[in-house]
Amino acid sequence: MGKIRILDTETINKIAAGEVVSRPFSVVKELIENSLDANATKIRITVQNGGKSFIEISDDGIGMDEEDAQLSFIRHATSKLSSVEDLFFLESMGFRGEAIPSIAAVSKFTMRTKKASSKTGIEIVIEGGKQISQNQLAISDGTLIQIKDLFYNIPARLKYLKQDQTEFMHILKFVYASSIAWPNVSFQLYNGLKKVFATSGNNNLEEVVSEVFTYDIFKQMRKIEYQLDEIGVTGYISLPSCTKVDRDKQLFFVNKRYIQSDILGKALRNAIATIFPSQRHPYCFLNISIDPSEVDINVHPAKMEAKFADEKTIYRAVYHSVRNIFEKGFIPTQPEPAPESFIREGDDKIVLSPQSYYKKEPIDRSFSPASMDMIFGEPVSNADHYNPLETFDYIEKKQGNDRQVASGLMPVMQILNTYLLFWHQDQLWVIDQHIAHERILYEALKEKKQEVISQELLLPETVFFDKTEEILYHEVKIVLSEIGFNIEAFGSGSYIIRSVPQFLINKNIKTMIKDIISETTEKDAGKKYNNILISIACKAAVKAGDSLTNMEMNKLVADWLCVKNNMSCPHGRPIAKTFMKTEIDKWFSRR
Ligand SMILES: Nc1ncnc2c1ncn2[C@@H]1O[C@H](COP(=O)(O)OP(=O)(O)OP(=O)(O)O)[C@@H](O)[C@H]1O
Ligand SMILES: [Mg+2]
Q1: Whose CA is nearest to atom 9 of ligand 1?
Q2: 42 CB within 6 A, ligand 1
């Protein structure tokens, strides 16, 4: 007897599930896409434990009759494709006929569905791919799918899942993306009993973009509308004054399908290269409208990749769509008054309605070089100078006598606006001004904790967090308050920054806080604490390229000589290089 056997359906589905369903996010994605294909106008998503223990998606779409409901659990059974040619004219999100059987193979799965023309609905319960029950029941039109204990029968997969919060964040990002691509559909996302995100479905894209990115960011975004041959590019992108430390808020779509694409990412990166500060990224979403026969989505079962027949034209279309926005310059205009719905229900606490921003920040319509700052806001890498008086009082107090060391210094000289040169203890020293200052600030934060002097802002600043940022903020808020931040929640994602550590006065605090929370993904509490200190020190330190006054240079060097661990920055880079007198003498054959 031969060794080759045909696998049973259960095993086939479990294997296929490995590719289609990698984490709770993939389940949510597949089920939302099914609801969209079913012409739903309302989709409600509820998850618990980041989707690991519970996911429920209900829609008011066309539903299924009994026969279709049963067929939907069969692999390669689909209503969306009848021949291979259809693949080139895809208008639906799904087409492979494998999402439902794959999900049902690795979870405890319940489907309730009813067509408008049927009198009753049907409920099918499947566990690990095996049918447990099937019943008729009275339900409303549409479909509800409930998934419990995802991967309960594949412990190896379960181990790879991240913290609940991380898994939830992936789901949230997909719901954000779907709501942007489908402003005519109302999405509601619940994390347990808490409603986390909702859109009205009234086809108002601006309203959705504002919900997803926050109104504060939306105000600083510009609309993209571009056509190159048969390719259309639409979307929004933020101004260079409104950036992020990561690319987390960049969403790409092809024919309304949310995808991950190297080519689109590269076109965007290159388009902003000389316009945005280096290492900073715009908030952005772009939808490419293209003839379906020019793009292949069937690259991977997860349908998150796209292969374009003509990559070069796609690249050019995206590149120019973005470039065009910035090349024409900006004439600041008063944004349209925000629709009522921006002022969210039950938020009577909120005094800062969009209208009141306008009052607070009057917009100058004149366009002159001087108004560039206003248009682009404060440069992110604001070259705030070294301010000895603000920063290092504490070293004076603590290390009083040690400071004598610094008093015998020769004058300090700055070269390339980056390095400081001075003579000390028979050696020529060259130090990197940025990382030396970073070490000083880091040690100040670390040693002093509570005592790092907190200073009240003359004008408190309001920062707006989207849902993802808000979740991350709650993870770091204790650390921030320990080191001198006083930030008050104001409801609906708005927070008021009242005081900050003294040396951060005059810095771009809002951007800094957003960066800190985006960067801090560390689970370990100690490491997280440390990373926040490093991040603040790095952002607040003088930069390479900042020209310093004599007093600033001398003070920086004196402080650096007195600080602990002064040979490397907190990231481990060397701060100083020395040349002994004997070595220099040798250069000139003195010995
Ligand atoms: N929410 C829903 N409302 C109505 N019909 C649905 C719904 N979800 C699934 N179906 C039906 O079940 C079928 C199988 O769904 P499934 O997601 O497994 O495959 P698909 O969507 O056709 O393709 P893909 O595997 O690419 O998602 C669909 O073709 C559709 O006819
Ligand atoms: Mg599907």
Answers
A1: 34
A2: no
pLDDT at position 361 over 60? no
* Domain 9-202 homologous superfamily, CATH: Histidine kinase-like ATPase, C-terminal domain (3.30.565.10)
Q: Does 196 have pLDDT greater than 70?
A: yes
Ligand 1: atom nearest CA of 81 is 22
CA of 245: how far to CAs of 374, 478, 506, 539, in Å? 22, 22, 20, 11
Dig out the tokens for 21 from the structure: 């369903």
Distance 133 CA to ligand 2 centre (A): 22
Judge residue 477's burial from the number of C-beta atoms within 10 Å of its C-beta, 0-12 exposed, 13-18 middle, 19 or more buried.
middle
71, 78, 178: which to mutate for ligand 1, most atoms within 8 A of CB? 78
**214-327: which CATH topology?**
Ribosomal Protein S5; domain 2 (3.30.230)
Residue 79 near ligand 1, beta carbon < 6 Å: yes
Q: Given this model, what pLDDT does residue 283 score?
A: 95
Mean pLDDT computed over every residue of the chain = 82
Closest C-alpha among 91, 87, 2, 111 to residue 39? 91
User: For residue 301, which ligand has an atom nearest its CA?
Assistant: 1
What is the length of the chain?
591
In the sheet that holds 413-415, the strands lie side by side as 413-415, 419-424, 427-432, 576-580
Q: Would you give the end-to-end CA distance of the chain in angstroms?
A: 90
Please give the Cα distance from 264 to 400 (Å, whole number).
57
pLDDT at position 452 is 66
115-151, pLDDT tens digit by residue? 999 999 999 999 999 999 999 999 999 999 999 999 9
- Is the pLDDT at 374 greater than 70? The verdict is no
Answer yes or no: same fold for 9-202 and 214-327.
Answer: no
The protein residue with its alpha carbon nearest to ligand 1, atom 14, reads 72
Atom of ligand 1 nearest to the CA of 63: 4
Please indicate whether residue 322, judged by its CB atom, sits closer than 6 Å to ligand 1.
Answer: no
For ligand 1, is residue 105 a contact (CB within 6 Å)? no
CATH 3.30.1370.100 applies to domain 388-579: yes
Distance 122 CA to ligand 1 centre (A): 16
The tokens of 375 are what? Answer: 């248009």
- 5 — pLDDT class (breaks 50, 70, 90): confident
Site to probe by mutation for ligand 1, drawn from 34, 64, 66 as the one with most ligand atoms within 8 Å of Cβ, is: 34
Q: For residue 290, what are the contacts with CB-CB under 8 A and spacing of at least 6? A: 230, 231, 232, 254, 255, 308, 314
Supply the DSSP symbol for 385: P
Angle in degrees, CA 468, 471, 475, rounded to 5: 135
Contact residues for 376 (Cβ-Cβ < 8 A; gap 6+): 239, 240, 241, 330
Domain locations along the chain: 9-202, 214-327, 340-376, 388-579
- The larger pLDDT score, comparing residue 406 to residue 463, is at 463
Residue 156 CB contacts under 8 Å (≥ 6 apart), including other chains: none
CA of 197 to the centre of ligand 1 (A): 25
**What separation in Å is there between the alpha carbon of 34 and the centre of ligand 2?**
5
CA distance to 58, 189, 307, 412, 524, per residue, from 141 (Å): 10, 20, 37, 78, 47
